[in-house]
Design a protein that fits this description.
single chain; alpha+beta
């Protein structure tokens, strides 16, 4: 003969009391929301976002393009006098697909490409691509 166990009876108010306890813990705490851009949080020391390019140091080796996992970096020909860059090719970056993985910074042999702490890179155009000249400028100098 199979013995059937009855399910445990639940006390109906226990769940409600637990829910009220959870709400009560957060009622008197300061809200986490920050009113950006009036208030700004302190960024961690290791935070990096915008890619910067030193045109004088770039040798056009295409290592940054090869190591980019999302193919966000492509090489573009720029007519510019630089004895170190004989092919006259420089990286341009599509920030729409860039994951800021820092692989380009780590593989660059001349440290010409590196990430900075700027993260306010909004654009009004429908393009997130930065040309080599725009990568060499500060963000407030770039025409948006």
């Amino acid at each position: 003969m199979i013995e059937v166990k009855e399910p445990k009876r639940r006390i109906p108010l226990i769940g409600t009391i637990r829910g009220l306890g959870t709400v009560g813990k957060y009622v008197f705490k300061k809200p986490v929301t920050v009113q950006y851009p009036e208030e700004r949080q302190v960024l961690p020391d290791r935070f990096r976002f915008r890619i910067f390019l030193n045109l004088d140091e770039c040798v056009g080796c295409t290592l940054c393009e090869q190591v980019c996992p999302n193919q966000s970096i492509s090489m573009q020909k720029v007519e510019r006098e630089n004895p170190r860059n004989k092919r006259k090719i420089y990286p341009d970056v599509n920030f729409g697909t860039c994951t800021v993985c820092r692989n380009c910074q780590e593989i660059c042999p001349t440290e010409a490409i590196y990430l900075t702490k700027e993260f306010e890179t909004s654009r009004t155009r429908n393009s997130f691509t930065y040309s080599p000249e725009e990568l060499a400028m500060k963000e407030n100098e770039v025409i948006k």
